[in-house]
């Protein structure tokens, strides 16, 4: 119920943005930041993140992504989604730092609600989600991948994945932490979260952050073959099992959603946290010059 209401708000936000949909033979639809190649006969869609330069999860991106996902969820012909980046090299740089820096409390609250919504929608999706991680994926990018049922990462040692929030002077919220703990186990999560570690593919595989590492040019074909394997399982039994495994964790956020937003707003508004973000943003800039 709460999810449906939030979804309506996002749809309204989407139309406020005035984005026009491009429909190409009903097989491909795109808004500015998300491209969907939808093969209705096969029941599979490929969702490509395309929010240059680094697929950061801005409020506009989150809104467009949620609208595209909802379209697929509402069409019962679609059973599986492959999530990937349109720009190989960066899967997603995570939450958009500019949405959390130098804004007002109302903006922080709106942004955080959308971040929660993305996580809940992906984590509780009835569809099979396969993540084709074709680039670096820190923090919120990693979280997005963690919501999927199966993760395949490109074997490129330049790419890393993990929850690096503590390196930015911020804290991974409890539901990021829970999702991570449920994936890699408590001790690994405790260690990695405190140090804000980012792992190259081989290490990520060893720790269970990803399920498979394959040569870069095989990420998409592998995602298709994994999807075929998952599609062979009857939907009702797979969905009931997924729900049984995930519901308690999602409910834990749903029941304290407003408190979580308030925590985020007061945490991110602190002068000390804004200073940390400023320092990190400067570091990103200096890296270039
Ligand atoms: C008492 C306890 C209470 C607890 C309460 C908890 C409350 C909750 C607290 C807050 C929780 C927040 C959780 C946050 C999650 C996140 O996801 S934070 C984001 C983390 N992301 C990163 O650290 C990645 C940073 N980026 C990079 O490392 C690199 O950009 C890259 C991804 C490796 C790509 O490198 P490259 O291709 O070389 O591109 P760049 O030149 O570095 O970047 C291009 C431009 O993009 C900008 N940019 C990069 N990342 C981001 C980003 N995440 N958001 C916004 N913008 C980004 C970068 O600055 C460049 O900009 P220009 O200089 O203007 O070109």
Could you explain how this protein is built, in words?
The chain is an alpha/beta fold. Helix content is 52%, strand content 16%. A hairpin with a 4-residue loop joins strand 3 (34-39) and strand 4. The longest helix has 20 residues, at 235-254. The protein is globular and about 50 Å long. Mean pLDDT is 92; it is low at 6-26. It binds ligand LEDWP2DD. It is an enzyme of class 5 (isomerase). This is Enoyl-CoA delta isomerase 1, mitochondrial. Pathway: Lipid metabolism; fatty acid beta-oxidation.
Provide the succession of SSEs.
HEEEEHEEHEEHEEHHHEHHHH
Tell how many strands the DSSP assignment holds: 11
- Alpha carbon gyration radius: 18 Å
**Mean of pLDDT:** 92
Notable traits:
three-stranded parallel beta sheet; binds ligand LEDWP2DD; alpha/beta; 289 residues; 11 helices; delta(3)-delta(2)-enoyl-CoA isomerase activity
